[in-house]
Specification:
Layout (H helix, E strand, L loop, with lengths): L21 E4 L4 E4 L2 E2 H7 L2 H10 L5 H13 L5 H9 L6 H12 L13 H24 L12 H10 L5 H14 L6 H11 L4 H12 L7 H12 L5 H10 L17 H16 L4 H17 L6 H10 L7 H22 L26
Antiparallel strand pairs: 1-2, 2-3
Length: about 375
């Protein structure tokens, strides 16, 4: 029996379940998807390959990859009634609210894919395909851009940028986004993935589970950190102000986003990879402003707090340099993590057990009941 006197706040270091999908070695700074090191996947695979790996447990051969790529391309169009609903949503709404609502509503039009079990793989592919379309339709309307087309011939990375910015990326830009999608595709039992698995463990459907995940990712302590990093960089302005601003934040006990991690005791391997891509995109654009600020920020925070960068430190600078609005950074995170979310839901369906932890009660006991007419 579990000792109810022991409380692990935030479930830190509590092993809740077994999974084949993702392994984090926080001491050595390694991230593994289904047996493959993230460094190899980021350098040599595409997001489509990684999605296949997460869903099926193996890397695809050429024919399997082509089939999946074609399928994702063919699934990008929204059902017309859902497209009309997205069109009617307020243009001043937060994009994550749009995404959460649209994901939930999509279940109305996918009755077969909502049934919990192996058939949910179709829903996983559908959700992965359609998230950029939802975001693109919403953002284009508020930005006054032309209506979106599904563009099935584009890779998922290229389509995401096209959907949001109404332009096709350069080869370097496409690769940068593809790497970012690969790196964000899964990260073991993070808050949103755990939320998805808790929902799935009740034998609820895939769309309900992913709606839970989107809602969880919206929280600024999970998603949104890269947006806050870029806003901080804009506030700092120049490298000679980094020390002053950081010291002021630390004196006020404010958190400098993009540093530290619940699991990694060393540098997040995703940050290592994205640092190089931030430099490459900055140099290609003739603008190393963000990169130079981030390098100086790293120096000061590590000296003052001993903290290492995490995935959020550099990703936002890449998106900003490509022209992506700041409030779309977290939705891009969702467009990647949906592959991992759905993989975890599928795994949960394989070995179903209701997730139901225990709380330590710290309230009163044995209070005498007082009738309502005698209460002061």
């Amino acid at each position: 029996m579990v000792d109810s006197s022991e409380v692990q706040r935030g479930l830190q270091d509590v092993v809740a379940l077994q999974s084949r999908i993702c392994f984090i070695d926080g001491v050595r700074g390694r991230l593994i998807y289904q047996g493959y090191d993230i460094r190899d996947l980021a350098a040599r695979s595409t997001f489509e390959e990684v999605a296949y790996l997460l869903w099926y447990g193996r890397l695809p051969n050429a024919a399997q990859l082509a089939e999946l790529t074609d399928r994702i391309g063919a699934l990008r169009a929204l059902p017309p009634p859902l497209a009309e609903r997205v069109e009617a949503m307020p243009v001043d709404a937060h994009p994550m609210d749009i995404l959460r609502t649209a994901v939930s509503a999509l279940a109305f039009f996918e009755p077969e894919e909502t049934k919990p079990g192996p058939s949910s793989i179709g829903g996983a592919q559908r959700l992965t395909a359609v998230l950029p379309t939802i975001l693109g339709q919403f953002h284009r309307r508020r930005a006054g851009l032309p209506p979106i087309r599904e563009r099935p011939e584009l890779s998922q990375a290229a389509y995401l940028l096209y959907a949001l910015l109404d332009r096709e990326p350069s080869e370097l830009e496409e690769k940068a986004i593809d790497v970012a999608l690969v790196l964000h595709a899964d990260h073991e039992l993070n808050a949103s993935t755990f939320a998805a698995r808790v929902t799935a463990s009740t034998l609820s459907d895939l769309y309900s589970a992913i709606t839970s995940a989107v809602g969880t990712l919206k929280g600024p302590l999970h998603g949104g950190a890269n947006e806050r990093v870029v806003r901080l960089l804009d506030q700092i302005g120049s490298t000679d102000r980094v020390e002053e601003v950081v010291r002021g934040m630390l004196d006020r006990h404010e958190r400098v986003m993009g540093f530290g991690h619940r699991v990694y005791k060393v540098e997040d391997p995703r940050a290592t990879i994205l640092r190089d891509w931030s430099r490459r995109i900055g140099e290609a654009k003739g603008d190393r402003h963000y990169f130079d600020l981030l390098r100086r920020l790293e120096e000061v925070v590590h000296r003052e707090k001993g903290l290492y960068p995490n995935v959020d430190l550099y990703s936002g600078s890449i998106y900003a340099l490509l022209g992506v609005p700041y409030d779309l950074f977290t939705p891009i995170f969702a467009a990647s993590r949906v592959a991992g979310w759905t993989a975890h839901v599928l795994e949960e369906y394989e070995d179903l057990r209701l997730i139901r932890p225990t709380a330590k009660y710290v309230g009163a006991l044995d209070l005498p009941y007082v009738p309502v007419d005698q209460r002061g």
